[in-house]
Amino acid sequence: MPAYPNATVSPRTEAAPAAPAAVPAPTTGPASAAPAADGPLPVLGRDVTVPLVTGGHVTYAALDYAASAPALQRVWDDVAAYAPYYGSVHRGAGYLSQLSTDLFESSRATVAAFLGCRPDDQVVFTRSTTDSLNLLAHVLPEGCEVFVFETEHHASLLPWRGARVTYLDAPRTPGQAVRTLERALADREPYGPALVCVTGASNVTGELWPVRELAAAAHAHGARVVLDAAQLAPHHPVDVGDLDVDWVAFSGHKLYAPFGTGVLAGRADWLREAEPYLAGGGASRRVARRADGGVDVDWHTTAARHEAGSPNVIGAYAIASACTALTEAGFDALVARERELITRVREGLADVPEVRVLSLFGDDAPRVGVLSFVVEGWNSSHFAAALSAEYGIGVRDGLFCAHPLVRTLLGGAPQEPGACGAPEAGPGERSLNAIRVSFGAGTPDEHVERFVRAVRELVRDGARWNYRTEDGRCVPDRG
């Protein structure tokens, strides 16, 4: 129960309320009123203008949501409303400490509801998806074998250094992904604890993976499943019970919240039985000196066991606010609008023969608002630089922290090693990189239309500016 039943937090409150207060539910002020169902959600930076090398300014088109989505205005308003009441959590007797403690723990409950967590699941606040998966790697039981497709983001591919890891080849259909996993699990020896790490949506192709089917295959062979939902959660509802996964990990900065906070949510037993991820205050319930000079520690069995130190209360509240905002906006409407944007981008790129969109599962595979492509005759860094400098469009180029996947997808793609911004290749290697465009709930129609028009013009007419390589990046040559 809240410690202070009458508290309110408002962006317009100048002083602490006269009566003790409970943790407020996120509020919506005039600047963050709910938009029409068919329009973008208000986000920070929507009115920012940037200079063009060809002269003048233009409203910035942020089309790099897969790296970091802009924060929702609603989230920013809620954080600003709480900021005057900032206080330490869990161990403070004062008014603001109690308020912040209530806010932190109610944020945990909001995230659990957003993910459809089961009654016994734990929600641990971390720094990011990467941190969440490293935490899970830390708590693996002895002898646990990990199965992971080579198509994963490095956050899912690399944390399992202390375990026996089986890397699975990139599948070319969802059905092949399930069959590949089933064969690998059936062949494992000795039969002991196992974990399967799967993505919900690729950060390279945007394609949706058959999570429910992969989870069923894993459980049929006695393995557990962790879902990397970094790219899925901002675009589609994620329900732990419905998907039947054991854990889910995601990041706030991809879910329209500020940087610095992530979530690992799911089964409590491995988390409860392992040594704390970090040792320190907050993770321990009791610490006492022994007669021999050592120290006895009684660790928490709750999520606090892996949240040592003063937690990022504002970050946790921001994630909870984003979860609330997306739930209230309605995923049905958000998904429907995003599908329209995806169709516009795909049809626009299909009209340019020099463009090849990257895909594992084929052109008709369902996806979120993430597409990667290459352009014949262009180094991808050069193309992305021209989109930014000449059109005010922010995309990403490179290998997207998924090097094995992108190299597989680009295996037969011609590249120009000497082009502006081409990354250095090792002996016998060709220079490989791609362009990624990504968007979501805050993307205006005009940004997508400008992007498609810019691609057509650059392919048809070439860049209007000269570019050079600087520190491995392609940048405008300003003489």
From TrEMBL:
The protein's required cofactors: pyridoxal 5'-phosphate
A matching Pfam family: Aminotran_5
Q: Which GO molecular function terms does the record list? A: transaminase activity
Q: Which keywords has UniProt assigned to this entry? A: Aminotransferase, Pyridoxal phosphate, Transferase
Do the record's keywords include Transferase?
A: yes
Q: Which InterPro entries match?
A: Aminotrans_V_dom, PyrdxlP-dep_Trfase, PyrdxlP-dep_Trfase_major, PyrdxlP-dep_Trfase_small
UniProt key word Cytoplasm:
no
* PANTHER family in UniProt: CYSTEINE DESULFURASE, CYSTEINE DESULFURASE 1, CHLOROPLASTIC
- Its protein name is Aminotransferase class V-fold PLP-dependent enzyme
UniProt organism field: Streptomyces changanensis
